[in-house]
């Protein structure tokens, strides 16, 4: 169903990102995969989510959406906005103007509020999908879906653009983000599909642009074309420190987190559990050429590993980053067996001379 994408990443980044969440925050996801995992995450991130006043978002922006030079970190443009009301020398939207780029910034619901019915909490004030944005560009984006476009009719200062979609499966006007923000947006949308899975199926019919994205289900949430595109954007623009810091700040602000920033591999585990190319390797040791893992998926709690050359160590991690088993190789060993594995999704890390490669395995 979904596009096969092979990308290279570092397993260490998986562990570093996972470490940002509080201890045991995702413990209840152990042994779960697919939409069962998604529902478990929904319960985790919904339980302590408290609604903040809409006006408090300005203060969150000023504290956490700041460029190194102290100006506003704007997702739709590249302006030197100052924080604060215009009467105090700032560029915060005051209900007037905003007909030219770089005049004012406002609060952009990256998942448009018309898609979920308007000023309805908690979606309306959920900081995880609300970002500072140039007012004029925000108005130009309107409620159009995000996708890759060609021959744009509008391009902003940071390269955001409006135009005809060239994304397979979508024939409509769309809005494209700059490459360095596409992953942030994708993980935001996977969050929305998870946090509001008990409501999102009812949002079909609210807005024709939203209907291009929403598939009317509470599990997959989005049409296939969107899952493909969001997954591609997620892979090609990995989580960075800005996103991690903002996620931690959101947790302090409203009591919940984006699990796909904490653990990006939840996405593959939920929306395509059979994705063979969910592989995390460094370039100098390509696991797909060096190792054979079978059976995968395993059906009886046992996995066999054969390597083409001797390796130093094998480690089995849960999908949340917990070390489950570790084998230190001896005497030029190339054949291994891991047993007594409970059903679930795991990451198998193979190490050789400080190089490593990690592959997803499934135990049914």
Largest sheet: 5 strands, antiparallel
As laid out across the biggest beta sheet, the strand order is 7-14-13-10-11
Flag low-confidence runs. 1-19, 279-287
Provide the β-strand percentage band: 15-25%
Number of domains: 2
Order of helices and strands: HHHEEHEEEEHHHHHHEHEEEEEEE
> How many strand units?
14
Helix-strand category: alpha+beta
Mean pLDDT score, rounded? 87
Q: Could you give the distance between the termini?
A: 21 Å
Spatial extent as radius of gyration = 22 Å
Overall form: elongated
Helical stretch tally: 11
Helix content: 25-40%
How would you characterize this protein structure?
- With 364 residues, the protein is α+β, with helices and mostly antiparallel strands.
- The chain has two domains: 1-48 and 263-364, Macroglobulin (MG2) domain (Immunoglobulin-like, Sandwich); 50-255, no CATH class.
- The protein is 28% helix and 19% strand.
- The protein has eleven helices and 14 strands.
- It has helices at residues 11-18, 34-47, 56-64, 135-141, 179-195, 208-213, 224-236, 241-254, 259-262, 266-271, 287-290, and strands spanning 105-109, 130-134, 145-146, 154-155, 161-164, 173-176, 279-281, 291-294, 303-307, 313-318, 323-328, 335-338, 344-352, 355-363.
- A five-stranded antiparallel sheet has the order 7-14-13-10-11, with no helix packed on it. Strands 3-6-5-4 form a four-stranded mixed sheet. A three-stranded antiparallel sheet has the order 8-9-12.
- Strand 13 (344-352) and strand 14 (355-363) form a beta hairpin.
- Helix 5 packs across helix 7.
- The longest helix has 17 residues, at 179-195.
- The chain is elongated.
- The protein starts with 10 loop residues before the first helix and ends with a strand.
């Amino acid at each position: 169903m979904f596009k096969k994408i092979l990308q290279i990443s570092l397993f260490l980044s998986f562990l570093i990102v996972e470490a940002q969440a509080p201890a045991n925050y995702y413990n209840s996801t152990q042994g779960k995969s697919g939409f069962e995992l998604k529902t478990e995450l929904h319960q985790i991130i919904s339980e302590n989510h408290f609604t903040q006043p809409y006006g408090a978002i300005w203060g969150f922006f000023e504290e956490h959406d700041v460029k190194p030079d102290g100006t506003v970190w704007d997702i739709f443009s590249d302006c030197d906005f100052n924080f604060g009301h215009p009467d105090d020398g700032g560029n915060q939207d005051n209900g007037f103007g905003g007909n030219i780029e770089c005049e004012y910034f406002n609060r952009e619901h990256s998942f448009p509020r018309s898609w979920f019915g308007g000023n309805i909490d908690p979606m309306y004030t959920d900081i995880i999908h609300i970002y500072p944005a140039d007012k004029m560009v925000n108005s130009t984006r309107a409620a159009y879906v995000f996708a890759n476009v060609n021959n744009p009719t509008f391009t902003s200062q940071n390269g955001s653009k409006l135009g005809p979609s060239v994304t397979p499966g979508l024939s409509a006007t769309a809005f494209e983000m700059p490459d360095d923000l596409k992953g942030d947006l994708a993980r935001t949308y996977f969050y929305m599909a998870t946090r509001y899975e008990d409501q999102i199926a009812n949002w079909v019919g609210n807005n024709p642009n939203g209907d291009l994205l929403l598939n009317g289900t509470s599990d997959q949430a989005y049409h296939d074309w969107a899952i493909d595109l969001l997954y591609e954007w997620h892979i090609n623009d990995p989580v960075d420190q800005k996103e991690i810091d903002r996620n931690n700040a959101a947790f302090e602000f409203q009591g919940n987190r984006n699990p796909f920033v904490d653990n990006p591999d939840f996405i593959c585990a939920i929306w395509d559990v059979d994705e063979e190319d969910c592989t995390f390797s460094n370039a100098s040791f390509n696991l797909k050429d060096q190792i054979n893992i079978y059976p995968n998926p395993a059906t009886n709690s046992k996995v066999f590993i054969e390597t083409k050359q001797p390796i130093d160590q094998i480690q089995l991690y849960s999908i949340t980053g917990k070390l489950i088993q570790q084998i230190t190789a001896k005497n030029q060993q190339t054949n291994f067996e891991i047993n007594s594995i409970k059903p679930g999704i795991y990451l198998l890390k193979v190490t050789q001379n400080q190089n490593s490669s990690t592959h997803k395995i499934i135990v049914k």
